[in-house]
Every structure is written in C-alpha cells, then in structure tokens.
Fold this protein.
Amino acid sequence: MIVAKCSRYVIALIFTFNSIAFAQSHDSLGLSEIKPPAQASEYIFRSSPKESLISVQLLGAVNRPGIYYVPPSTDLLKLITLAGGSSSTGDMSEILVRKLEPKSWAEIKSKAVEEYQGAYEVDAEKVIKYGGAKQLKLAQDDFIYVPQKSYMVSSDTARSITIVSLVLGIALTAILIDKNSNKGMHQ
C-alpha cells in the first residue's frame, strides 16, 4: 500500500516536471511573444524626382521603424501607412508626436489630438473614424512614437500562473486518485 502511494506521487512529480519542461521548450523554439525590436532604417518616398523632402523619425510598434524622407505634404496617417502600419502590438490610440515647432499643430481642434508640453498624443483610431488626417501635416525633424499596447497581466506573470496552476492541478489529481483508490480498498 505504501509502495503504491509512493509510486502515484512519483508519477505525479514526473508529469509535473515533464509539463514544466514542455512549457519551457516552447520558449526555446522561439514561440514566445517576446521578439527583438525591428531594426531602424532609412526610407525615401517621393512622387517626382525633383521633389523636396523632409526627414521625420518613426519609432516604436510599427512594421518598418526608421528615418523617413517624405514630401512636406505628408500627414501622420500616411507616414504610418508608408511604414507598413502598426505592428500587432502597436497601440494606435496613443501615438506620440514631438514637433520641433509645436505651434504648427496648436490650431488643430480635434478630440483625437491632445497637447502635452509641446508634444501631442494622437488617437489615430478616432482620426480614421471622424476624419481630420490632412490637418496632421508633418514637418522637418518631427519625432513620432507608436507605443506597445499595455496589457493587464504581463506575459511573464501569465506564464508563472500557468505553471503554478498546472502543478497544483497535477498535485490535486494525485490526491484525489489516492483518496479514491483507498476507498476502493476498504470496500
């Protein structure tokens, strides 16, 4: 009886360690959601060979971050489109724009644009929904940052909770098996 009980606990421990090893092996295969940041590059977009260009920096959660040389008539949404749009983790409702000349956007009256000490927070989703993209013209040396979406629980916390619940589930299953097998012996 003691041997059977010990063997059940050993089997439960083996399943636990195998499950933990399996969960960790997914990370080593590169299946986790943590990815290295994309390398910034330089991009040139013009509609005619002699068109003058301005340079702006676009960083953060976009598919092609980097320095962009674009016509002065380029607006914020067009720039993000040229960059391949936001990445799957990009938060388009909190785009930050730091302008060298913040007064150039001071006249914009939109619920999608809020000013904070010379920088602007733009909700691109509202701009798309209600219009007004043409007002968001970019200027030389503007800096645009598309932040990552923030989640209530980080991926590390979710992974830890999964492992703990797995271990507890296996331990409780072993206890239930032990109790039920003891009832069967007494009958």
User: Anything to note?
Assistant: Confidence is low (pLDDT under 50) at residues 26-31. The beta strands are 41-44, 54-60, 66-70, 95-98, 113-116, 119-122, 143-146. The longest helix spans residues 155-186. The first strand starts at residue 41 and ends at 44.
